[in-house]
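Task card 7
Instruction: Convert sequence to structure tokens.
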Amino acid sequence: MNQALKVIFAGTPEFSVAPLQALIDSEHEVVAVYTQPDRPAGRGRKLTASPVKNLALQHDIPVFQPETLRNKDAQQALADLNADIMIVVAYGLILPKIVLDTPKFGCLNIHASLLPRWRGAAPIQRAIESGDSESGVTIMQMDVGLDTGDMLHKVHTPITSTDTAQSLHDRLSTLGAEALMQTLEKLQNQSLTPEKQDEALVTYAQKLSKAEAEIDWQQPAEVIVRKIQAFNPWPVAFTTFQEQPLRVLEASLADQALKHSDKESQPGLVVAVEKQGILIETGTSSIWLTQVQPAGKKAMSAYDFAQARQLLGHQF
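Output:
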């Protein structure tokens, strides 16, 4: 049997939970968990622990929450753990070179894209928004650059026509856990073959902003639907109805038969309301809004939203 590894795990959001659970369930020893300091959350702005911290505490794993890893005390505390390897998954702090070099086998990162495509902050959302046919997970040996390290293991998954950022996020989190365990096994067997990233193929996944979530009905139908899916659950695509934001959670392309005729189209115009949803013209063809959320209310089917309102002929 291979020698079990002493592991430091660094992660913060829900995406990091499955990989940590996989390590806890394995023969490896998680000697410490690093996660972001508790942050105010919810309407009461109560200090809330990260999902990773909650899981660590359930298993009596020591938790470290430094504001930075750039000072000597934090670096010494990490070195004192005498770990073989550090696994980093959406941690949220920059790791200086001294930290990257501290564990025996360095630091590995689980990145939610097929590197070198979509380095950066929002790889899941940008892959959907751009119409990529597939996504995946890359296990990478970390260096001082932004997602620039050598690739150690990749797992692919198709992006389906119904995938949202949430559904792809959940799938990649599970795949990341599986890929991590396969990578650690290769590390133990000394069978890892690091692969350099091709700089000519690099793309960057810029951080999402609320400002870019507003729907431009002049855009092609496919672009609008991809944005709606990519921005669910955050920041959520929206349009305006009666001077209030109307969040659009789900939509789908209309049949090809519903493409515009030779008449001049009116992007944003509601042309039908049916059980299926609200049919709206775009810059090319029409799309169905199927689930929406009015300001201050819960999410509902677009058909239910339309029942109490005169939407036919309305211009969003």
